[in-house]
Specification:
The protein has one domain. Helix content is about 40%, strand content about 15%.
């Protein structure tokens, strides 16, 4: 009889198989939920990175326009791509600054007419016909120098020292005679 009991104990019972299958199914459901959540967060992060890259690209374009002398106060448009976004660029002169970092002895506002504040805002939707002022999803702000007018640039180049003699300009880096040890 001992052989009959040993023969019955070789395999798994139906109850043990059902418990193991339910544990496996529960684990698979939790794992698939975690993977789905990770994929959703990954897509959201990718979308944010793309938006930030677009904002920096628009900011670089605005700074290049300013450096080229194309002054503007504000312009807007739409980005291209699968999810177009509206953008707005605002350029303001930084006059009458008052800050803890920039103070005068008399605590008056400082005049800094040569600096510009360039602000780029990207909005979630491309249509600008919405009522009210929508909150931007990305806002970048950078200061830039106002480009010198050609007449001011010429007067700086022809500056004189105290004795009335012209100040020599520094040699160009591309000038081979400006290198150390270069012989004429």
């Amino acid at each position: 009889m001992s052989l009959d009991k040993a023969a019955c104990r070789r395999g798994l019972s139906l109850l043990e198989v059902m418990i193991a299958a339910s544990i496996l199914a529960g684990s698979a459901m939790v794992l698939s939920t975690i993977i789905g959540t990770g994929a959703r967060f990954g897509n959201r992060a990718e979308s944010k990175v793309i938006t930030i890259i677009q904002a920096y690209s628009i900011l670089d374009e605005a700074l290049a326009r300013i450096a080229a002398g194309n002054m503007f106060e504000e312009y807007s448009g739409e980005t291209t791509g699968p999810q177009p976004k509206a953008f707005q660029v605002v350029v303001t002169a930084m006059e009458n600054l008052q800050s803890a970092a920039i103070t005068s002895p008399s605590d008056k506002k400082l005049e800094v007419p040569s600096l510009l504040r360039v602000e780029v805002s990207l909005f979630r939707e491309a249509s600008s016909e919405k009522q009210g002022d929508p909150e931007p999803i990305v806002r970048l702000v950078q200061t830039a120098r106002r480009p010198m007018v050609q007449q001011q640039a010429n007067s700086v180049d022809n500056s004189m020292n105290d004795s009335g003699a012209p100040v020599p300009s520094a040699p160009s880096r591309r000038d081979p005679s400006a290198r150390r040890g270069a012989r004429p």
